[in-house]
Design brief:
single chain, 6 strands, 2 helices, alpha+beta
């Protein structure tokens, strides 16, 4: 069986790495509308996620995602180990 695992990003890590004002401009999209967020909106969104107790965010669509550990995997039948 093959397991597909989606990527995720560490929220605290993003805030540490993108310290410079304006550096988060256009990096994050609104999960509901798809609109890219301004730097201030992105920072607010990330802080709100941390306040919810989340550690990671998905880097795309994932219907089996845990905000503590990330994608739990998607089994697919096929060749492989």
């Amino acid at each position: 069986m093959i397991i597909t695992t989606h990527l995720c990003v560490d929220i605290s890590g993003m805030l540490r790495l993108y310290k410079r004002k304006g550096s988060l401009e256009g990096v994050i999209s609104d999960p509901e509308t798809g609109r890219t967020l301004s730097d201030a909106e992105a920072r607010q969104y990330l802080q709100e996620c941390l306040a919810k107790g989340w550690r990671v965010l998905p880097m795309g669509d994932c219907d089996n995602f845990d905000h503590q550990t990330g994608c739990k995997g998607h089994p697919k039948e096929g060749e492989g180990n």
